[in-house]
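Lab notebook: predicted structure, single chain.

Context: the supervisor wants predicted structures on file for every construct in the current expression panel, including those that have not yet been purified. This is the next one on the list. No modifications to the sequence; it matches the entry in the shared construct table.
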Amino acid sequence: MSVRFGAFTLDSDRRQLTNDAAGEIHLTPKAFDLLMLLIGEAPRVVRKTELHERLWPGTFVSDATLVGLVKEIRKALDDRDSTSPLIRTAHGVGYAFAGGLERVASPHQSAVTRWVVAGTRRIPLVEGENSIGRDPVSTVCLDTSGVSRRHARILVADGEALLADAGSKNGTMLDDKPITGKVKLHDGDRIQVGPILIVYHVSSSGISTETLSHTVPSR
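Prediction complete. Output recorded below exactly as produced.
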C-alpha cells in the first residue's frame, strides 16, 4: 500500500515515510506501525484498547508508551495545527488519522487483494482455504494461549471471503458476535480469535489510484 497525504507518502511494503521536500523521514518501527494502522482505519477513531491489542498483542504496555508514539508521529509530520490536525485525539477514547488520503498503486506493489492484519503483521490471503490457529503451518499462525491449534478458517472463492470456526475450544467472534456456520466478510471486519484481534481487508485490483474523501468529525 502506497498512500499520499499532503507532501508525505507512506509505503507500507517498503516501510518508508517520505516527504517531497525532505526525503525519507525516520520513524521507530512501532511508530511506523501505529501510523500505518491509523491510516488503514481512517477516518475511524481507533480505541486505545484496540491499539494496544494490535500493536502489543498479549503484552501489557502503559498508555504512556502509546502517547509517546503519537508524539513521535506528530513531530515527524510537523503536525502542529490544532484546528486541523493529521492525528486527531478523541479524548478518553483513542486516536484517528484525520487528513485527506490518496492511495496510489506502485510498480512493486503486491497483487494480493485480500489480507488480514494481526498485531503488526499484514498477512495475505490466497484463493481457497486460509487456516487460522496455533499450528505452525497455518496461513495465519497465532502461537498464543487461548487459540486452538486449528481455530478458524477463511475460504476465498467466487469473489468473496467466508469465515468459519474450525471447532475451536473458545469459539470465533465477528464484530463482537459469536459466529455459527460460514459468515461473509467485508472490508474492516474485526475477527476475534481467542485473545487476538484480526482485521480483514480487501482492495479492488486493476485500479491505479483511489482518492479517499474523509469527513473529519468535529473535535
